[in-house]
Amino acid sequence: MVVGGGPAGSTVARMLSKELDVLLVEEHHCPGRPVQCAGLVTPRGIPPSARKSIIGRVKGARIHSPLGFTLALEAKETRACVIDRGAFDQALFDEAISAGAVTLTDAKVTSVRDGGDAVDAVVSRQGAEETVQAAVAIGAEGFKSICREAAGLPPAKHMLTGIQVDLAGLKPDPDTVDLYIGAKVAPGFFAWAIPAGDVVRVGLCTWGSEHTPSIYLRSLLRRQEFVGGRKVGSSSGKIPLGSGRSAQSGRIMLVGDAACHAKPLSGGGVFMGVRGAELCAQSVLSFKETGKPSSLAAYDGLWREGFGRELSRAFRLRKVFLTLTDKKMDKALRMFDDPSVKRFIEENADIDYPASLSSSVLKLAPKLAQFSPQLIESLF
């Protein structure tokens, strides 16, 4: 049983359905709706079946410091694709169905219990409840994962709260994303403006902030570049950061945001969610062959080897970011404007693995170490 029909849930359901009977339970009528995503994904994170969901391509970024400095970065190739998240999720969901998964939509899993020999789950749909028994339950239901709670795994280390609006009537640079940082802009994270076809997606996330995200968004929308924009849509949600060392307990496994596998520096969860789902499926299929619970436990080793180091290093960099005052943010951003550093970032930036570049950037700009010497030293 897979709980949640987002990209991670649909991916693991598709892979397992080739050899197993799979039930995919989705809370909403359509996967991917309501939208709770900025929709910026690297090309490697978009499977062929979902390429029709691409509505834009981004090469560059402008990062605006709280004191007025702007760092402009531009690559020769596409660094990220802007997607219609609803269409993206539906494409992956349809693939799972084509592979043989049985789906339940408008259905909510209200309880999960690992009985040792099987997992029992209560599914509520159209006012009726039924108990479903499965050999393995895979939680892919996002930040409020009931499977994570049932597995007894600790909550996310940081829970971001986000809000976003779609603005029509603006004329942005279609190749460039704008990012805004600062304690008065988006405390604990950052704000963004993403060109998405006929609209611009403007949003932000906060953590440990004094006010609700909507207060900061209203302030952001007063910037000159958003004046004249007409709101045609909005969304909100939460992003769990800080994965811990385990995404499995007994017969319960977790993928995507349920596993806290979102990227700590960008909040993006699609790529790591899908990659984790592939590794989860690999472990479950191994369990089918061996019948040994240790095959399920092997999942933790697989995802930690695959991308755990990136998540860990990125979370340490996030801790550095959280120590910076607005003045220090501005100072650090100006250091990135050094020609050699800027050129290196433009040629090598990878939003799926940003922390992997940290040691190289620090060698090019050693003065960055002044902001948090002990934490930065741990990156080497």
Order of strands, main sheet, comes to: 6-5-14-15-16-13-17
Number of separate helices: 10
Largest beta-sheet characterization? 7 strands, mixed
Query: What is the name of the CATH superfamily?
Result: FAD/NAD(P)-binding domain
Query: What is the CATH C level class, in words?
Result: Alpha Beta
What fraction strand? 25-35%
The whole-number mean of residue pLDDT values reads 93
Shape: globular
Output the structural class: alpha/beta
Count of the separate structural domains = 1
- The helicity comes to 25-40%
The termini sit apart by: 41 Å
> What is the CATH T-level topology?
FAD/NAD(P)-binding domain
SSE succession: EHEEEEEEHEEEEEHEEEEHEEEHHHHHH
Describe what you observe in this structure.
It is a single chain. This protein has 380 residues and is of the alpha/beta class. Helix content is 33%, strand content 27%. Strand 9 and strand 10 (119-125) form a beta hairpin.
